[in-house]
Amino acid sequence: MITIFSSEHRQQAGTVELINGRLEAPVEKPSRADSILASVQSAMLGPVLAPKDFDVAAIERVHDPRLVSFIRTAWGQWVAAHGAWDALPPSSRARGMQVREPETIDGKLAYFAFDAGTPITAGTWTAARAAVDVALTGLETLGSGGRAVFSLCRPPGHHAARDYYGGYCFFNNAAVAAQKAIDNGAQRVAILDVDYHHGNGTQSIFYERSDVLFVSIHADPRQDYPFFLGYADETGQGAGEGFNLNLPLRWGTQWPQYDEALQTAIERIRHHAPEVLVVSLGVDTFEKDPISRFKLRAADYPKIGHAIAAIGAPTLFVMEGGYAVAELGHNVVSVLSGFERAG
Ligand code: SP5
Ligand code: ZN
After folding, report:
1. At what angle do helices 124-143 and 173-183 cross, to 10 degrees?
2. Average per-residue pLDDT for the chain
3. Is residue 212 within 8 Å of 189, Cβ to Cβ?
4. Using CA atoms, how far apart are residues 208 and 326, in angstroms rounded to an integer?
5. 193, 210, 237, 324: which one has the fewest Cβ atoms less than 10 Å from its Cβ?
6. How far is 182 from 176, CA to CA, in rounded Å?
7. Would you say residue 98 has pLDDT above 80?
8. Which residues are in the CB-under-5-Å shell of ion ligand 2?
9. How far apart are CA 171 and CA 131, in angstroms?
């Protein structure tokens, strides 16, 4: 399997993260992608290619141009106002509040961010754009034949919606790739999100559409992040009714319950008969993940890959979360080689 990777991901390097009320070293850090790349290489998964440069217009097919321009200019405004330290919002909107975009950098951070865990740093724009290029190059590579491509994106993307960012995500790499597949002429695309956290950004981008089916297996939003979306009764709206499937699972979930949800997801996706399948691949479902509470084991990841292969669609794997850095690369490669072995 071909992997697409950009070393520009290292440009996204936050200084601190608020975890359980304490300022700690960020869990979403450069060593994540480097460790995945090392595992891809040592497992000899296949060639590793650099991305091509795509125009920002591809991002604006799913994101508000105001968000794109904010991510591009925020660091400069922040440094001028406060100095060269991670840019984080001083507040965020609650239900019904703040419908106008303020003028100052602090106001704009509060307006566009939905959490305080996603620092904008000197290299955020470069890294976030490169991650989109990695996803789009993966899609293009998939189009020239082959059953699957791995886009080793970092920063991740699935929490970023049309006009807000958060959850370590700035641009929704998977959604941009799915939209590009539609723009290239596909009539049906599916996105399967197996990250531990609900892909609220992806869901909301495609919520009223029937061409892009979104299916997600994740921690129950009554218990875990992002809390505000991911419930089973969110089934899509208007033309999109029936084209959003959430399969929330409780803390402590082990393989048997996970597998049951995965089979349900796969059955729904097969019924959609997608011309392209995008997998938002998070392995923060792992028992040793530092911020998550599912109990999947290393031996479960090849089974996830094997199950996804049964859908039988050209598949673009897009990297999302996974924070147990020591085992991260191994678990990711397990999914990908499980897919390949399925033949
Ligand atoms: C892409 C992705 O996986 N984003 C996840 C963002 C999660 N951010 C919130 C982390 C909350 C940490 N809670 C700590 C509980 C540890 N016991
Ligand atoms: Zn996650």
Report:
1. 40
2. 97
3. yes
4. 39
5. 237
6. 10
7. no
8. 195-197, 282, 284, 321
9. 8
CB 325 within 8 Å of CB 33 = no
Q: Which residues contact 205 (CB under 8 A, 6 or more apart)?
A: 62, 161, 162, 172, 175
| Predicted confidence (pLDDT) per residue in 228-240, tens digit | 999 999 999 999 9
Q: What is the DSSP string of 81-96?
A: HH-SS-B--S----TT
The two beta strands, 22-24 and 17-19, are: antiparallel
- Residue 149 tokens, joined: 């491509």
Tell me if 194 sits within 8 A of 292, measured CB to CB: no
- Among all ligands shown, which has an atom nearest to the Cα of 251? 1
Tokens 């094997």 belong to 306
DSSP 216-284: EEEE-TTTSTT-SS--TT----GGGTTSEEEEEE-TT--HHHHHHHHHHHHHHHHHH--SEEEEEE--T
Q: How far apart are CA 102 and CA 254, in angstroms?
A: 45
Residue tagged active-site, from 63, 158, 159, 330: 159
Calculate how far, in angstroms, residue 292's C-alpha sits from the geometric centre of ligand 1: 7
- Other residues' Cβ atoms within 10 Å of the Cβ of residue 19: 14
To the query of whether residue 159 is one of the catalytic residues in this protein, the response is: yes
Mutate to test the pocket of ligand 1, among 19, 291, 331 (most ligand atoms within 8 A of CB): 291
Report whether residue 291 contacts ligand 1, using a CB cutoff of 6 Å.
Answer: yes
The residue among 318, 20, 16 whose CA lies nearest residue 141 is 318
pLDDT in tens, 271-290: 999 999 999 999 999 999 99
